[in-house]
C-alpha cells in the first residue's frame, strides 16, 4: 500500500512481526468508495486497518462505515494527520490501548473536537488487531 510520499507500506506475516516501509515513511490514505465524505477513521498501522476491514465486514463490532481511512504508520506522522483531519466533521480514532496510544488519542482529541475514541470497543486488548485476532482465531480454537 502506497503512502502519501510514494513509500510502500507492507508486511510479510511469515517474515516479520510489524509492518515496514520501503522508501520514505508517511501516512497512508484510503479514500471512501463513496467519494468525498465527512468522516475519517485513523489507525496506527496497516494491521489495525486490516482488522477494521475484517471486523466491519463480519459485523463483529459496530464500526463507522463510508469514511476515509488514514493509517498513521508511525507516531512521527501525527502532525501531518492533524492538518489532514481538520477537514472532517467526524474523526474516528482506532489507536492502541498502550501509553503511546493514549497520548496520541489525547493529543488528537484536545486539538480536534470532532474526534471520537473507539478504543473502548476493544478495551481489554492492546489494539484493534489483537481484538480481531481474538474474535476470529482464539474463539474458534476454544470451540
UniProtKB/TrEMBL annotation:
Which protein is depicted?
Uncharacterized protein
Q: Which domain of life is it from?
A: Bacteria
